[in-house]
Each structure stands twice: as structure tokens, then as C-alpha cells.
TrEMBL record:
Absolutely required for transposition of IS1. GO terms for biological process: DNA transposition. It comes from Shigella dysenteriae serotype 1 (strain Sd197). Belongs to the IS1 elements InsA family. InterPro entries: Homeodomain-like_sf, InsA_HTH_dom, InsA_N_dom_Znf, IS1_transposase_InsA. This is IS1 ORF1. Residues 43-88 form the Insertion element IS1 protein InsA helix-turn-helix domain. The gene is insA. The keyword Coiled coil does not apply. Keywords: DNA recombination, Transposition. Residues 1-36 form the InsA N-terminal zinc ribbon domain. The lineage of its organism: Bacteria, Pseudomonadati, Pseudomonadota, Gammaproteobacteria, Enterobacterales.
């Protein structure tokens, strides 16, 4: 069996890291006994991936509706509306 050393992203400790259940998506969660922070290694938030903002703007400019854009991209309608609202501001 292979051993993988997992370090805490907050305090960088490796000796106090224990498993702490699973997320709703089924990914393993970890707990640092030193700083009491929890995290998971395989966390992906679709709305914050590179290129998401530009894809939303491009779809809006090509006449795709907000709900259809949210459904196609796999993010919430509120995320689409927030990106469109903030598109006038400089990034």
C-alpha cells in the first residue's frame, strides 16, 4: 500500500492530519488537529475556473439566455447574473 503525506494548506503541518468524513460529492475530507481547519484535496468550483467569465460573456453576446447558459455551463443562475452584472467593471 502506498503512503501519501498530506499537509495542511493552512499551517503546513503533516503529522496532525486525519481523515474527517466525505463531502456531498463523495470526496474525502481532512482535518488538521493543529489548526482545526478542514479541507478536501479534490475540490472543484466550476464558476471559478479560468475562462468561465469569458465564456459567460461570449454566450450572452451570441444571444444565449441566462438560464440556458447556466444549464450548459453547470453553474447557478445567480453566478451567471453576477458575472453579467460585473462585466462592465474592470477585472
Amino acid at each position: 500500500m502506498a503512503f501519501v503525506s498530506i499537509s495542511c494548506p493552512s499551517c503546513s503541518a503533516t503529522d496532525g492530519v486525519v481523515r474527517n468524513g466525505k463531502s456531498t460529492a463523495g470526496h474525502q475530507r481532512y482535518l488538521c488537529s493543529h489548526c482545526r481547519k478542514t479541507w478536501q484535496l479534490q475540490f472543484t468550483y466550476t464558476a471559478s475556473q479560468p475562462g468561465t467569465h469569458q465564456k459567460i460573456i461570449d454566450m450572452a453576446m451570441n444571444g444565449v439566455g441566462c438560464r440556458a447558459t447556466a444549464r450548459i455551463m453547470g453553474v447557478s443562475l445567480n453566478t451567471i447574473l453576477r458575472h453579467l452584472k460585473n462585466s462592465g467593471r474592470s477585472r
